[in-house]
Amino acid sequence: MLRKSKHGYFKGSNCPISNEEGKFIMSDKESDKLGRVLALVLRHAPEKFDVEMDINGWVDVNALCDGIKAQRRDFERWLKPWHFEAVAITEEKGRYEVEGQRIRATYGHSIEIEIDLPTDDIPDSLFYPVDPDEVDDIIKLGIKGGDRRHVHLSKSVSKAHEAGRVRINSPSIVEVDAIRAIADGIDIYRAGKLVFLTEGVPPQYLFKVSSDDPDLIEVLEKLEEEE
User: Fold this and answer.
1) pLDDT in tens, 89-126
2) Are 128 and 86 in contact (CB under 8 A)?
3) Of 156, 133, 157, 129, which is closest to residue 143 (Cα–Cα)?
4) Which domain does 210 fall in, by range?
5) Which end of the chain has less Cβ packing within 10 Å, N or C?
């Protein structure tokens, strides 16, 4: 569940800082449901909820609240604008960003927006999951955005593997030489806490992570232990 103490919003029964119980905000079921609606509105279809979005993906929280309540009766009685901040702050991957009276998704867009995310503190290497049958073509041709407007990169082999397993049973991992790509003028942005975005990565910056890579071996061993 989501609760709030004097230190802010948190997940669980007790504040991780003060150990106080805090004020109840919403149940896990309610926060999960709201998260799915936010993903739909802020990443894909603001027009379905009669919400205006600016060129950088921001929407007004009051208009968003009214739009969701008008379309979804299950939110009508309880949803308030500050519920969006609660979800954004406690979401572990940093999928959403709140600034004053507006909110936006930080990544995952299928609609066209102009990115104005930070470009500092980019790791020297980033990682991208691919179908094993496609990895050789990716290395030769580069990575392109596809259905989503931007390529989504991870900061570690384990996070890339985790992201890839959503759609690929056993993904191969491609390493991106981010430090050289940035030096050559390719923009890479920090989005959320774990994801990095770029419009595409040419092949000269790509390398396949070998099957004997220690980080990949560690990931696969952990998966075997869980099964």
Assistant:
1) 998 888 899 999 999 998 888 888 887 888 999 999 99
2) no
3) 129
4) 125-226
5) C
